[in-house]
Amino acid sequence: MQKVGGEEMKQEKLDALKVELFKKKISYKKLAFYIGVSVNTINKRMNGRGEFDCAEATLISDLLGLDVNKRVEFFLSK
Description:
Distance between the termini: 11 Å
Structural class: mainly alpha
Order of helices and strands: HHHHH
């Protein structure tokens, strides 16, 4: 895990992902159902307490209609 600067960057990515979900009117409940996890799990991951695995990131990206650049921005960190 990266230090504080990395945590801030991670939170910025999660905040941007939250905005995309809001724009598409996709609730955490709907997202959880779509990727096959609990709402609690989505809440934890969207608040930086856990990460989406590759399969989940792909499903979320498909659901949101994200292009390759957005997929990289949201789910691949440096």
